[in-house]
Design brief:
The chain is built from one helix and five strands, in the order βββαββ. By secondary structure, the protein is α+β, with helices and mostly antiparallel strands. The radius of gyration is 19 Å and the shape is globular.
Length: 87
């Protein structure tokens, strides 16, 4: 279009790919178990934070092999979430 500031972009289209998320939940007031929520609503319970985070990292590494980014989020005692780096 003449005089238009719009430029047609030719080439590969880059889409924003939503990451797959793995959640590590802090134990609730009445329970002692840490739990991990995986894609597809699969839930695993653990007796310690270390075991839960280790499991979340293992699953995240497996899921990242499918081409989508994977993010591990861990709940803090305050109820806020922090992103945990998957190595």
């Amino acid at each position: 279009m003449l005089g238009s500031s719009y430029a047609a972009h030719k080439g590969p289209v880059t889409e924003h790919v939503k990451p797959i998320r793995v959640y590590v939940f802090y134990p609730s007031m009445n329970h002692r178990s840490w739990w991990v929520l995986l894609p597809g609503s699969a839930k695993e319970l653990f007796g310690s934070e270390g075991a839960a985070v280790d499991f979340a990292f293992t699953r995240a590494r497996e899921l990242s092999g499918h081409g989508r980014p994977v993010e591990v989020l861990q709940e803090k005692i305050s109820g806020s979430w922090m992103s945990v780096r998957v190595s």
